[in-house]
Amino acid sequence: MTRNIALVILLAGALLAAPHAKADAIFTATLLGSNEVPPNASTATGTITVTLIGDFLSVDEMFSGLIGGPATAAHIHCCAGPGVAAGVAVPFTFITGFPASTSGAYDHTFDLTSTAVYTSTFLNANGGTAAGAENALLAAMFAGLTYANIHDATFPGGEIRGQLIQQTPEPSALMLLGMGLTGLVALRKRRTAK
Q1: Which of 46, 72, 102, 106 is the most buried (most CB within 10 A)?
Q2: Distance CA 79, CA 173 (A)
């Protein structure tokens, strides 16, 4: 019986730890012209997933159908909510593989401890150090005050944009945790009844 209880406790602990072992936080956004400032009628779409693991920020972005021509720039902007424009914090450069096309995908991991990750304006506005820039960026991300967008020749201010929103653990993981804890309570009651 004690063995069963220990197994249930280990299962519950594993379920709690699993999301954190994979990532400290995950942020996502859907990029649309209607999210830009000012909004536009672009039919282009995109998605972005930003995963934070320690001091590393992994960006996975896909987009299609830019009507203003090939992408000329893409970034994470900080620090503003929906409907407000902000400066560039982290540029996605063609050097790091951002596609100069109307449709494409981008996958890159940034080391947030490097000053080279940030624009000089963002870096200087946050103490001139990577640590200051990282702290400001992460605080804004967790507060919902960062967004990603893609620019092109017709839309130099951005054709599509999406506010980065932190994702919560999947309900299925929480359900499994609840089932494990329920089993633990049932075993405890059975043991106490004997």
Answers
A1: 46
A2: 32
Tens digit of pLDDT for each residue in 108-164?
A: 999 999 999 999 999 999 999 999 999 999 999 999 999 999 999 999 999 999 999
Q: List helix spans (H) across the chain.
A: 2-22, 120-125, 130-142, 171-193
- Beta strands of 54-156 (E only): which ranges? 56-64, 71-78, 88-92, 104-111, 146-152
Is residue 182 one of the residues assigned to a domain?
Answer: no
Mean pLDDT over each residue of the chain, to the nearest integer:
86
In a domain, 2, yes or no: no
- b/e string for 61-98 if b means 16 or more Cβ within 10 A? bebeebbbeebbbbbbbbbbeeeeebebbbbbeeeeeb
Cα–Cα dist 173/180, whole Å? 11
Contact 108, 42 (CB under 8 A): no
Q: Is residue 109 part of a domain?
A: yes
* Domain that includes residue 38, residue range: 23-169
Among residues 53, 46, 115, the alpha carbon closest in space to that of 74 is found at 46
User: Which CATH number belongs to the domain containing residue 159 in this structure?
Assistant: 2.60.40
Residue 174 forms part of a structural domain: no
Q: Count the domains in the chain.
A: 1
Please give the C-alpha separations between residue 168 and each of 24, 27, 101, in angstroms, as whole numbers: 11, 9, 33
Could you tell me the pTM of the whole model?
Answer: 0.77
